[in-house]
Amino acid sequence: MITVYEFFSLSLYQQLDRQLLILADAATHSLSEVKEHKEAFETDDFRGLDDDGDLDIPWQNIQQASQGIEWFDQNRQLIAKTGKVFPPIDLSHYHWTYIVDGKKIRTLTLQINKESELQKQIIGYVRVSESTKPVERVLIKLRLGMMLGGILVSGLTAFGGMWLTKQSLKPIEQSFEKLKQFTADASHELRNPLAGIRTCVEVMQSHPERIHPADIDKLKAIASGVNQMTSLVEDLLLLARTDQDSIPITTNLVIIPMNELLEDLVEFLLYQAEEKGVQLILDMNNEIKIKGEGNQLWRLFLNLIENAIYYTDTGGKVTVYLEQQEKWVWVRIEDTGIGISPEQLPFVFDRLWRADQARNRRKGGSGLGLAIAQTLAQNHQAEITATSQLGKGSCFSVRFPTLAHT
């Protein structure tokens, strides 16, 4: 676009220079008459021609209001001038452009010679000038048009790009929707076979006398695999339902006493913590209530506390804090576990993601626990964040709005 503007600008100034050259050439034929009739040359009747055999055009016929003509003798002294535009400088300067009162003036000076048998003799000079205002006016309109055109083109390009992007994403979105539907359907359909396998295993384990001693460990492995598969299927089904917005959380909101929920949850996980040698502590003072769905809140904090227990070594500590600060209710789960590196911390809530050190410690996890926790927190208009120091522990905080701000 800049190149186009420069091309038009150059063309307009070249056209202006050609006009000046034509005017100067016409004015040169009047030099002798101007010298003889200084007083009469400004009248409309004056038509000085030199009868030198070429085509003479009176300068009055081509001079415009925005132009000026000056005649000089061979000593560069001004003889006469006519018009309205004159550069404020003597003839010794041959610049093309001057600026007068903030306005540009374009000038052209021609040397007038009288040819003799021996040599050319300088008899005078003609300087013609013209304001560049008409050219600048055209260039301003051109710039405005190009700017508006650029805005229009940019708008059309952006709109076209958005439309093309939307069209190109449609197949991907459709495939993604089908994938989510398949995940939900597959998770739902897998529940019944897994329930049947679990029932069979439990029946067999209830009659150990019928089991060959060599098959006992195999049966335990089957039971463990079924439990892991069941947990994974339940996680996938929960996420699939959440993605499809099929959980009517807004219609199931009730007042939940967080003190009681966390007490029951800590009591439920206490045996698991003691079995691993981890101290599980609940730190809370006042009775605090929020609006929520009980099962989802239970699952949210179950995932967070279980994670903390899993990744805390024997002799470590997991502390659950409950407190209210102004318009927010905070639940924090702090542990003295292995921690998460700063590079991996931004990805802890991604689905199917686990830190490298976590993969070596927990073989049965699905990598969905924290993703589910984040989804359930968002269902309650809550914000979940994580901080951690590698080798020192982690802290997961969930911030709920109070009853007054729900």
Automatic annotation (TrEMBL):
Organism of derivation: Planktothrix agardhii (strain NIVA-CYA 126/8)
Stored Pfam families: HATPase_c, HisKA
Signal sequence region: none
Source superkingdom: Bacteria
Matching CDD domains: HATPase, HisKA
One GO MF term: phosphorelay sensor kinase activity
Coiled-coil region list: none
Protein name: histidine kinase
Domain Histidine kinase intervals: 185-404
Keywords annotated in UniProt: Kinase, Phosphoprotein, Transferase, Two-component regulatory system
EC number: 2.7.13.3
InterPro entries, alphabetized: HATPase_C_sf, HATPase_dom, His_kinase_dom, HisK_dim/P_dom, HisK_dim/P_sf, Sensor_HK_Regulatory, Sig_transdc_His_kin-like_C
